[in-house]
Amino acid sequence: MFAIGKYNVLKVKNLENGGCYLDAKSQSIYLPKKDTPKNISIGDDLEVFIYNDSKDSLKATTRKPYATIGEFAVLKVKDVTTFGVFLDWGIDKDLFVPQKYIKKPLKAGTKVPVYLILDYEKKGIIGTCFFKQYVKKEIDVEILKVNQQVDLLFFKETSSGFKVIINNTYFGLVYKNEIFEKIDIGDRKKGYIKKIREDNLIDAALQKQGFIPASRDVKKIILKALKDNKGFLPLTDKTSPDKIKTFFNISKKMFKKIIGGLYKEKIISIEADGIRLV
Asked: For the whole model, what pTM was predicted?
């Protein structure tokens, strides 16, 4: 058995012109020469991604697409037609989004968030821009907890922040005033659950919540920076917030708290032009 749009482990059945055919029980699936590992032998197992090369033809690749069936992704539009759009999928074949699954007109070169599904015949992989139905509305608070590390997919910018997909399962929001690094639509980052609201919406953040857990990480970063710079950094409580953000991706408020703690522990000394390891 094998699954279209997923990774499968299949045995090499035949070798042909540098490529090979993989045993998928009911049929053989071709793996092109450019994707076939060297020194492969008949009977070897290979992990491959299987997709529809055409309506009635399947193909395998050892390359990794940007997303598989049942996953969200933000992909670049390569071509626009009257019947749909084609998106850069990271493999030879582009991902097709039929016109009926597109929310608004799209232009080549722009990025669009999609969810990958099988077509109505269950033979091909397509994308849809209508994906609210694939996001869980009810949050299991026994599984998802405050300060839990999660995977974030940034898919839309708003006036207050960035909408994200959390663990490929829930909608969330990361507020702009809590972001201290450049974010682009389509970025995937590790983050943390900040708050699970009564309306079943989730506030997320790129930093651990609470001063104590967050400060532990920042403390390590600052000490490492000091060691990497011969024990001295030209930063003080008068340094601009932008410069501190450039150095550590944290707020000036957090920086001052950490520096104060390190000074009390007698780990650093505070000088007129910076901080120094004792």
From this structure: 0.78
